[in-house]
TrEMBL record:
InterPro entries for the chain: ArsR-like_HTH, AsnC-type_HTH_dom, Dimeric_a/b-barrel, Tscrpt_reg_AsnC-like, Tscrpt_reg_AsnC/Lrp_C, Tscrpt_reg_HTH_AsnC-type_CS, WH-like_DNA-bd_sf, WH_DNA-bd_sf
Name this protein carries in UniProt: Lrp/AsnC family transcriptional regulator
Annotated HTH asnC-type domain residues: 3-64
Keywords: DNA-binding, Transcription, Transcription regulation
Gene3D superfamilies, per the entry: 3.30.70.920, Winged helix-like DNA-binding domain superfamily/Winged helix DNA-binding domain
């Protein structure tokens, strides 16, 4: 299914206001409530909308420290990559894990209470990941820009 301008407006609004009522959404995109509802359902069914979530403030949740960890593995065999990915997905402090092209094999985005908490995460989890040859951690000093909305 190709997205038309109305679909794109719906997606744009929903990315910013996920809890908006169908009545308010239909008003913002200039559609009847029933037509808007049908379009949202179709966008969900076709996979354009994968889920609805509440985005929490990590600072208010006691996790103000943001760390990016570059990981280089000892090899590139499928079984090693699979074992690493399975193990890293079980670490609750890891928000994102990306397989990379470049100097590192993976980049992890991790939240922690502070540097001591990150040391615990490193000691209890990261140092035990299978196949890790090298790790480099970078602490974010300040978030300059952040969004979850992709261009539509």
């Amino acid at each position: 299914m190709a997205l038309d301008p109305t679909d794109r407006r719906i997606l744009s609004v929903l990315q910013r206001k996920g809890r908006i009522s169908n009545a308010d959404l239909s008003e913002e995109v200039n559609l009847s409530a029933s037509a808007c509802h049908r379009r949202v359902q179709r966008l969900e069914e076709d996979g354009y909308i994968s889920s609805y979530v509440a985005l929490l403030d990590r600072r208010k949740m006691g996790l103000p420290t943001l760390v990016f960890v570059e990981i280089t593995l000892s090899g590139q065999a499928d079984d090693l990559l699979d074992a690493f990915e399975k193990a890293v997905s079980r670490i609750p402090d890891v928000l994102e894990c990306h397989l990379m092209a470049g100097t590192a094999d993976y980049i992890l985005k991790i939240v922690a209470e502070d540097t001591e908490d990150f040391a615990r995460i490193h000691r209890q989890h990261l140092s035990r990941l299978p196949g890790v040859a090298q790790m480099q951690s970078s602490f974010a000093l300040r978030t300059v820009f952040k969004t979850t909305a992709i261009p539509v």
